[in-house]
Write a structure and sequence with these properties.
Blueprint lengths: L4 E2 L6 E2 L9 H15 L2 E2 H5 L6 H19 L11 E3 L7 E8 L8 E3 L3 E3 L2 E3 L2 H13 L2 E8 L2 E2 L8 E2 L7 H16 L6 H24 L4 H31 L5 H26 L15 H11 L2 H11 L5 H12 L9 H12 L2
Helix pairs in contact: 3-5, 5-6, 6-7, 6-9, 6-11, 7-8, 7-9, 10-11, 10-12
Length: 360
Amino acid sequence: MKTVKSVNILFPVVFMLGLLQTGCYMLKQGSYLLSDRLHAVPIEKIIKSDSLTLEEQLFFGRIASVLEFTETVLGLEESPNYKTYIRTDRPYLAAVVSGAGMFSTAAYLWTFPIIGKVPYKGFFELEDALIEADKLGRKGFDTWVRGVDAFSTLGITHDPLYSFMTDYPEHRIAELIIHEQIHAAIWVPHESQFNEEMASFIGEIGAEHYIVAVYGENSREMLLLLAEKRDRIRWLEDVTELRKELETLYEQNIPSPDKELQKQKIITGFKDDFRVSYPDRYETDTYSKIPDLEINNAFIALYIVYYEHNNLLVRLYNSCKKKVSSLQGLKSMIEILRPLAGNGENPYDYIRNILDDFNP
């Protein structure tokens, strides 16, 4: 299947690169990672230099504010991450390949030592990602290549900041950092989907609390965050409906060529309807380019990885904040989830058991 590169929809990911893999992939990506980290300059040094720009000065101030919030308010450990900075001409950090079956929206999984199976494989060079996607496509899989603006190496290296982040909205910076700091604090082995769902949820809720704490509930920053949140909910509803329609098709016992034609017809119809209805249904332009993308199963699977069990996390968060403030509820939720990093339990069963204890 043809691979599509998207730089409009970016996701932070856990990206162990070549340090935990064997062969040429290890050597090449590991060398890129080492080179990248060697170019990182301590923020304190840049602040004292003559090359500091006003944009960077404001950006570093926002970063310091978010990091203080994650430590003093959310209770996450002080981390050496995000204390260094890399100036780059690139609009994103790395290219990540995702895949799914031609007639399935289940994500293709790559296996890595230590962290287990993950639904993506990352490359510092786009060309390498396209080669990997082409190899997967030749095996009959749908593929998707996207840019990512951050990744966590789970403590193996100190994660830096990048110059392309300086114009991010305040809430996006907060969400990104909290997302990655959660990965560093709580990583459940062999549960990559849960790890992404957990970090995404806590990152989004944490960013809301941060914006309220710094700017207030009625601030311009908060209004923008809430508008994008409503759009995200609408988009997840839309892509879920598309997934259901396609899965119904895939269950039918019809010849593959006919199934492929119907698949493309459904996707084309979805994009056409989405384009026409977008101005009336969405508040921001965050998802306005969706009809221009070559949507396939790998693209749809991407959202399943980050949001499929969102309702379970919402229930846990709501239960945690019943007797305390919303902010303390999030902190309590983080503490409840910490044991998952080492207890070997299925994380979804663990949460269900916690909820049963909350609501006997």
